[in-house]
Every structure is written in C-alpha cells, then in structure tokens.
C-alpha cells in the first residue's frame, strides 16, 4: 500500500495549488520514504543472511596451500561443485549447475603447479635421463672384448670382435655370470687342501645332519626339541679313524651350527662343517656339489636323505630314509660297510657303490655278502687244516694257523676297536684338561679401573704369564692323572 501512495503523493504535491495540500505533502512523502527505506533495509539484510547461509563459513586453507600440501585441488573443487546445496528455485538451480560445471571444466583445463612441483618434475626428468644413459653405457661396456682376468668358462666358444653377433654373445655371457654369482657357493674351494700323506685319511665322508644324525620337531607343549639318534657318538668316533668326516647340513648356518657344536664340541671327530650357504642353487633346489670340496671326487662318499642334495653326483651317494625320531640301529648297521671300504685302498668308490642293487638296503645286502664270504673262508681254512696232516699229527697246526684262521674283516674290526678305545681315552683326557684350564683361567680378568690406571701388562708379559699358567695346568693335570691311576690299581 505505501508503494502505491508514493506516486500519488508526489503528483498531489506538484499539481495542487492549495497551501494546505502543499503543507501536508512533505509529511506524507517523508512517511512513505521512511517506510520504503525500512523495507529495503529489511529485504537487503534478509538477502545477505541467505547468502551467508548458502556460502557457509570460509576456510583459512586456500587452494595454494592445499596444492603445496600435495592435495588435488581440482578434484576437491569438482566434488564440492557436484554436491552443492539446493537452490531456492529451479531457475537458480539450473544456473548454479551450469556455473559449477563451467568452473569445473576451467579448473580441469588449468593445472595448478607450485614451484616445488616444477622442481620435482625437473629433477625427475634429469634422473630418468641419467639412469637411461647409465644403463645404456653399462650395456655397451659389457659388449667389450674379453679381459685376461675373466674366467675361461665365461669365454667359452665366444671370440673377440665388434660384430653385432659377438657383441651380443659377450653381453649375454657377462649378464648371466652376474646371476651365477648368487647361485654358486661363496668360495670356489669349500675345504682347504688335504693334509700331507702321513696324516691324510684315505676317503672323505660327507654326512647330512637333519633327519640322519638328529631329528627336530615342534609341539605346542614343548616348542622346538632336537633328539640325537642312538649311536651317533660311536658312529662319528669310530669312523673318524678311517674318514675325513665333513658334516654338510641342509639348514642355514645360524640354525645348524649350534647343533653341530653340541655333537662334537672338541672338533675331534668332524673335520669340517658346511651349511646351506655352501650349496649350489640350480633348477630351484640347493645341491651339495662334491666337486667344490677341493677333494678327489672318486674318493668322496655322501650319505643323505634327500635325493636332490646329491643330484650332481648320484653315483657317490648312499641314500638313506629320513629318521623320524624313534630309536633304531641304522647308524651301527652302516659301520661294517664303511669300515670295509676305507680299509681296501679304494681308488674309486663309484663302482663299488653301483654294485649294490638297492642302495637303500645296502647294509643288509653287504651283510649277506659277508656271510657268504665267511662261509667260503671257513671252508678253505678247514680244507687247509685237513690237508696239512703232518703238522696236525705233531699237534702244532693250531699254533701255526690259529692267527690266520680268523676272518679278515674280524681282524680289521678288532684293530679298529683297539684304536677307538685309545682314541676315546685321549679325548677324555683332553676334556679333563680343558675343564681344569677353564677353572684356572676363569679368575684372570681385567677391570675398567685397570685400563684407566694403566695397570694392564704388556703383550710380552701376558704371553709369559699364560705360559707359566699353562705349565701349572699341565702339572696339575699329571698329578690328577697319577692319583686316578693309583685309585684304579687299588680297586
């Protein structure tokens, strides 16, 4: 209504000549103007509040800050535009969608890149260029002619020259040799050279550890437990007088070394310990290559439970079934054959091993052969005694032929048992000596105060003290040895 009165009041003020009307017109105009001003202010404040509600609170994180932080600003804005609030009217909604889609398109076209992003891309491009150049230069360097220091097995059937074919062959050979480095043992010779002839054993015996000498199993109640097979100590001690024993574990050193130390703490029976790290990795399996032992392969035997372990030299192997932890006498049954083989001055073990039909039953088959030889030997001895009637009549046949009537393998066994008893006696004495030495040496220590005050003796003085201490230990050991011998004589 006030909007309609405003033009009428203005017309009356202009057209009327009455003083009364002219006096009342300004009052009417003033009232109408004030009312219109209030209405406009109220409408403007209402529009501002609606706009603030529509826009919501503004964040202090600008697009530049978000881009420097590594966020995708364009994607965030596009999602924000796609999930905007509802418009008051359908026309406003259409306009907002068109504006939002237009802004999103312009943002997609415009890629935000900070100075850090530009530096990053620049360094990445240089990295790619240098990497590609290094690879290309390395590949070209691997196609060069052969060096004199390179092994002959890599150069085999590949000559020098800079033709495409020869360069590719040299590159391929060198590239493959890089991978064979990880497939070969750490050293070309796993064992040092053998000792001189008087101290050298005639044959080398390679024995596996897991499921042959020991058996490990895990249970929820006890965890990991390792059992030692019956007869292990006798097996190792007795055969050590005939063989150079090499313990070749199928496990890694960090697991197998502790068990090997417990089997032979004095290193009296086992000459060397090898582990999985010393195997050859080929065709997806670890192989115990006997040619890497620095020994004559014809004089090396291997006893193992896994055929893949000796697949490179199967003719040198004595296969055995894995031990499950139950008590048996399989180790003792192997001793007669191994003893016979070592005492026959064998030059090549392969023909002897291949003479057995089933190597898994080698102890039983060898025992059957010994029984037949014993029967034949006894018959021959009986014929000799019956044929020598003159000596028999004089009663001296028994004295002359008594020593020769023993079976040769029995003589070998008797001699081996005597040597084993003497050897074990030395081992026990050495253990007692080591025990006394540990007791005497346990109190000889130096404190931090001695190092600070300089009370540490010189190396020459320490050596002299050790020699004197060792002399005292030897005298103490001999005294206890005499006392023990006297006690045995009294008993």
UniProtKB/TrEMBL annotation:
This is Mitochondrial import inner membrane translocase subunit TIM50. Belongs to the TIM50 family. Residues 198-341 form the FCP1 homology domain. Residues 76-94, 468-491 have a biased composition (Basic and acidic residues). SMART domains: CPDc (SM00577). Its main location: mitochondrion. The keyword Transferase does not apply. Gene3D superfamilies: HAD superfamily/HAD-like. One of its GO terms (biological process) is regulation of mitochondrial membrane permeability. It comes from Naumovozyma castellii. The keyword Protein transport applies. It is a single-pass membrane protein. SUPFAM superfamilies: HAD-like (SSF56784). PANTHER family: DULLARD PROTEIN PHOSPHATASE. GO terms for cellular component: TIM23 mitochondrial import inner membrane translocase complex. It is found in: Mitochondrion inner membrane.
């Amino acid at each position: 209504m006030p909007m309609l009165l405003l033009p009428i009041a203005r017309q009356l003020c202009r057209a009327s000549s009455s003083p009364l009307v002219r006096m009342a017109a300004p009052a009417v105009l003033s009232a109408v103007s004030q009312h219109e001003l209030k209405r406009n202010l109220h409408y403007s404040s209402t529009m501002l509040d609606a706009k603030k509600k529509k826009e919501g609170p503004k964040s202090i994180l600008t697009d530049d800050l978000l881009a420097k932080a590594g966020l995708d600003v364009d994607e965030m804005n596009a999602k924000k535009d796609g999930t905007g609030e509802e418009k008051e009217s359908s026309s406003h909604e259409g306009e907002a969608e068109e504006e939002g889609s237009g802004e999103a398109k312009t943002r997609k076209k415009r890629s935000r890149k900070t100075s850090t992003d530009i530096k990053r891309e620049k360094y990445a491009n240089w990295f790619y260029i240098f990497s590609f150049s290094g690879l290309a230069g390395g590949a070209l360097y691997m196609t060069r002619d052969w060096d004199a220091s390179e092994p002959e097995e890599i150069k085999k059937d590949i000559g020098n020259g800079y033709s495409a074919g020869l360069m590719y062959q040299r590159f391929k050979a060198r590239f493959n040799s890089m991978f064979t480095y990880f497939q070969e043992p750490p050293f070309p010779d796993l064992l040092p050279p053998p000792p001189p002839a008087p101290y050298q054993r005639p044959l080398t015996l390679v024995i596996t550890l897991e499921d042959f000498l020991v058996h490990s199993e895990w249970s929820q109640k006890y965890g990991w437990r390792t059992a030692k097979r019956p007869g292990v100590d006798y097996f190792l001690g007795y055969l050590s007088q005939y063989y150079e024993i090499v313990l070749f574990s199928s496990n890694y050193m960090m697991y197998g070394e502790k068990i090997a130390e417990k089997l032979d703490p004095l290193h009296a029976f086992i000459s060397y310990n090898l582990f999985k790290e010393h195997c050859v990795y080929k065709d997806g399996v670890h192989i115990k290559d006997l040619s890497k032992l620095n020994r004559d392969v014809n004089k090396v035997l291997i006893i193992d439970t896994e055929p893949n372990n000796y697949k490179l030299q199967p003719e040198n192997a004595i296969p055995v079934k894995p031990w499950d932890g139950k008590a048996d006498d399989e180790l003792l049954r192997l001793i007669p054959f191994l003893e016979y083989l070592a005492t026959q001055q064998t030059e090549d073990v392969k023909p002897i091993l291949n003479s057995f039909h089933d190597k898994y039953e080698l102890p039983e088959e060898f025992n059957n052969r010994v029984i037949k030889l014993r029967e034949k030997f006894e018959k021959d001895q009986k014929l000799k005694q019956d044929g020598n009637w003159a000596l028999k009549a004089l009663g001296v046949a028994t004295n002359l032929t008594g020593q020769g009537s023993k079976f040769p393998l029995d003589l070998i066994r008797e001699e081996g048992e005597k040597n084993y008893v003497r050897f074990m006696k030395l081992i026990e004495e050495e253990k007692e000596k080591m025990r006394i030495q540990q007791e005497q040496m346990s109190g000889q220590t130096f404190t931090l105060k001695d190092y600070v005050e300089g009370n540490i003796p010189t190396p020459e003085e320490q050596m002299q003290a050790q020699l004197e201490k060792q002399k005292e230990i030897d005298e103490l050991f001999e005294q206890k040895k005499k006392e023990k011998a006297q006690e045995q004589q009294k008993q």
